[in-house]
């Protein structure tokens, strides 16, 4: 079969031949209809994600919309291994999938599920989120960040502040539910929020913590800071005084901190929300044969490879 094949962390995947998949036990071989190019997929393929194994060659891809041997449409996530989803076929464990309606758009589902899942699971499984809370999304102009704005509102947030660097993209977030938008230089205006969903990390988040806690009127009020992405840096300098002088509570949400069973439990409801257009998504279908030339493309849309 044809697939996107990674042979080195220093080069994009190349479209080429790869051995046909073989199912074992309760697994099944499925046809891949659409697979998203997510930040996690890129990070595993270039070796910067903590779950990268360094074993070559391998096929990247963490999820997909597939057609099973019975003709059913499924959204699936796959185990870590040599065969991901950027291929004509892959192997799945049916227990790690959810059936989709026959009229579901494979490209839309493949584009949205992974980025939407990051904030969805964080608010459902990592903190005791309650309706009426105020939320700040750091890095709201990206695909996952814009979905986080929508998901926070869906879960009952009373007020959502979106923070980012691109003014035009920030302005568009008002239509998706943001009550207020701020630049990274204005984060003292978000000092009274209850929850931060952080896709940025690094120096910008360090400055944000300092500005927000310094301006916070009631430092005894809990501030849940959920670290999800790290586009600005893997590490962060935290002044110890911030932790002593406030109820800042930092946690991460991702593979490892959330059990696989918790991710799987959230899939059906999230799939319904995406299918029903309750979560806006911008998707760009691209033939898998063009993987090497589009791998590092700069686009506002989520690239979805179609074998």
How would you describe what is shown here?
With 307 residues, this protein is an alpha/beta fold. Helix content is 28%, strand content 23%. It contains 8 helices and 15 strands. It has helices spanning 39-46, 106-126, 143-154, 167-172, 202-215, 240-244, 260-275, 291-294, and strands at residues 2-5, 14-17, 28-36, 63-67, 73-77, 89-92, 97-99, 134-138, 159-163, 180-182, 195-198, 223-227, 248-252, 283-287, 302-306. Strands 3, 4, 5, 6, 7, 14 and 15 form a 7-stranded mixed sheet that branches. Strands 10-9-8-11-12-13 form a 6-stranded parallel sheet, covered by helices on one side. The protein has a two-stranded antiparallel ribbon with strand order 1-2. The longest helix has 21 residues, at 106-126. It is globular. The model has no long low-confidence stretch (mean pLDDT 95).
How many H/I helical runs? 8
The largest sheet is: 7 strands, mixed
Number of strands: 15
Give the SSE string.
Answer: EEEHEEEEHEHEHEEHEHEHEHE
What global shape is seen? globular
**Beginning-to-end CA distance, first to last residue:** 10 Å
Estimate the mean pLDDT confidence: 95
> In terms of structural class, how would the helical and strand content be classed?
alpha/beta
Could you estimate the helical fraction of the residues in percent?
25-40%
Low-confidence stretches: none
Radius of gyration: 20 Å
Strand content bin: 15-25%
Give me some keywords for this one.
single chain, 307 residues, alpha/beta, 7-stranded mixed sheet, 6-stranded parallel sheet, 8 helices, 23% strand, globular
């Amino acid at each position: 079969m044809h697939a996107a094949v990674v042979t080195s962390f220093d080069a994009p995947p190349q479209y080429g031949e790869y051995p046909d998949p073989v199912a074992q036990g309760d697994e099944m071989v499925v046809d891949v209809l659409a697979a998203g190019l997510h930040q996690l997929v890129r990070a595993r393929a270039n070796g910067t994600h903590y779950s990268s194994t360094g074993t070559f060659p391998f096929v990247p891809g963490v999820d997909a919309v597939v057609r099973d041997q019975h003709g059913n449409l499924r959204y699936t996530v796959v185990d870590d291994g040599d065969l991901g989803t950027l291929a004509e076929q892959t192997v799945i464990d049916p227990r790690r999938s959810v059936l989709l309606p026959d009229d579901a758009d494979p490209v839309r589902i493949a584009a949205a599920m992974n980025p939407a899942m990051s904030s969805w699971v964080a608010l459902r499984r990592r903190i005791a989120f309650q309706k009426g809370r105020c939320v700040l999304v750091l890095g709201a102009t990206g695909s996952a960040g814009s979905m986080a704005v929508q998901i926070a509102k869906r879960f009952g947030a009373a007020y959502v502040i979106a923070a980012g660097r691109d003014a035009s993209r920030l302005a568009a977030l008002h239509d998706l539910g943001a009550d207020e938008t701020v630049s990274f230089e204005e984060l003292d205006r978000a000092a009274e929020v209850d929850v931060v969903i952080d896709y940025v990390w690094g120096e910008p988040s360090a400055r944000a913590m300092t500005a927000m806690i310094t301006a916070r009127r009631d430092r005894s009020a809990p501030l849940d800071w959920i670290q999800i992405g790290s586009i600005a840096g893997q590490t962060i300098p935290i002044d110890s005084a911030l932790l002593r002088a406030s109820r800042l509570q930092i946690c991460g949400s991702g593979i490892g901190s959330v059990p696989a069973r918790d991710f799987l439990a959230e899939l059906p409801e999230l799939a319904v929300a995406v299918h029903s257009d309750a979560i806006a998504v911008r998707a760009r279908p691209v033939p898998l044969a063009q993987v090497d030339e589009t791998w590092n493309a700069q686009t506002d849309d989520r690239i979805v490879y179609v074998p």
